[in-house]
Amino acid sequence: MPYQQQQQQQQPPGVYQPGAFHRPPPPHASHFMVPQHFYVPPFAYSADVQPYPVYLPPIEQFQNMHLVRPPMQPAWAPPQDQPNLQDDIRNQIEFYFSTNNLCHDTFLRRHMNDQGWVPIDLILGFNRMRAFTGLVDTNYILDAIRDSELLEVQGNNVRRRNDWVEWLLH
User: Fold this and answer.
1) Which UniProt keywords apply (predicted)?
2) Four-way CATH pick for 82-167: 3.80.10.10, 1.10.10.10, 3.40.50.1820, 2.102.10.10
């Protein structure tokens, strides 16, 4: 009797024999799976050595298993330390309107209107400000700079408080 046929006869259902290649069970599989064998070259296992059986658990055990997922992170969480965040926002925008920066920043000065106002949306487009816009909305940012001694806010516009006329280019 050929080795493959002999091996098939000795195997009880639901038992995996090393060396045999199995297909996954169909969706309507019964409690025990009957292995579907493929040809294994005779040199892979010696006929003298009997491989030990490995019993597979029934697939039904895993069908109704409940998975526990980690809690989801909220898409937006309010800032934890708001005074520090407001200080960081105010300091960054005050830097943009500082004397040292305005001496070199012709881009910001070109966007000042004839009253020295700059739209907050322009400032929020700056690289450093993008980190804040992911955390808070525009109104929060405007509120953060309302207490500034250097800046003043009107609507959605910002300008230097006292000497804005000195920085106009037109």
Assistant:
1) RNA-binding
2) 1.10.10.10
Determine the Cα–Cα distance for residues 156 and 120; give it in Å rounded to an integer.
6
Question: Quick check: 108 and 102 in contact, CB under 8 A?
Answer: yes
The rounded distance, in Å, linking the Cα atoms of 159 and 169 is: 14
Give the integer Cα–Cα distance in Å for 102 and 109: 7
User: Would you tell me how many other CB atoms lie within 10 Å of the CB of residue 33?
Assistant: 19
Q: What is the dihedral of CA 129, 133, 136, 142, to 10 degrees?
A: 50
Tens digit of each residue's pLDDT (9 = 90 or more) over 89-140: 999 999 999 999 999 999 999 999 999 999 999 999 998 898 887 888 899 9
